[in-house]
């Protein structure tokens, strides 16, 4: 009974769940000031051409260096930021930093690499419905002197399921300007494939679960057929296919044979500081 437990008035059915709730509460409280205090930082993970292994760009992945809890991954705080509305200024900050970074890479690389390094930035559904998205993006690109076609915005498949025209309008405008739109975590959202035609996307990012099923050799024949089907559908709609979570050379080879275009994963590099990408791209370009 509670009383015998040291006068504690609360019986905790699940102490771990309670600890998680307390942390969540603490994080939610600390979140609004974290941006002003400069506690967020961005790691970049290379996007690699599957045909020749060359670095084509990077995805920006935000982290929070919390004064007590250390480095927190986005899964810990993005949902809270969405809930509290901080995601709009946070997302704008990530976009601005990433685009500036792309400009710096460009200045250091353009002559050495085959083309400018591109930058991929994740967009929360809350940012899609925020009226400032298009204007902010235009201003950020102009201020940094970066072409729209060097930017790819990633939106999850689930965010666009059943999206009406109002939601798609800002994405269409960005796409018309030359910004690429990628459908992130594709294959997890049970979207109607015919629906793809309606969306202003130019890249499918195949979810990590597909890559994982390429772990065994030979891979499950049904999984192979599914990926093969997605790739051929994507290509027939003029969409490029990027694969996430590539951890082994065998997976990379299998996905290359299946016709995927671009890959991302620990096999190539973990997310890291911007200079790391610079080194990887340069090594890649010079030999
Ligand atoms: P995502 O966009 O699907 O990003 C890919 C995630 O897979 C990243 O996790 C990355 O670190 C991880 N990953 C990459 N390669 C491998 C691999 O080979 N194996 C495994 N097991 N994992 C790999 P991360 O950094 O924890 O980000 C998680 C999610 O948080 C992202 O998923 C994205 O949806 C979201 N996120 C990250 N940054 C932002 C941001 O600035 N804004 C918004 N709205 N969401 C973000
Ligand atoms: Mg992403
Ligand atoms: Mg993804
Ligand atoms: Mg994913």
TrEMBL record:
Residues 24-285 form the EAL domain. It comes from the Bacteria. This is EAL domain-containing protein. It comes from Streptomyces broussonetiae. The lineage of its organism: Bacteria, Bacillati, Actinomycetota, Actinomycetes, Kitasatosporales. The chain holds residues 428 to 714 of 714 of the full protein.
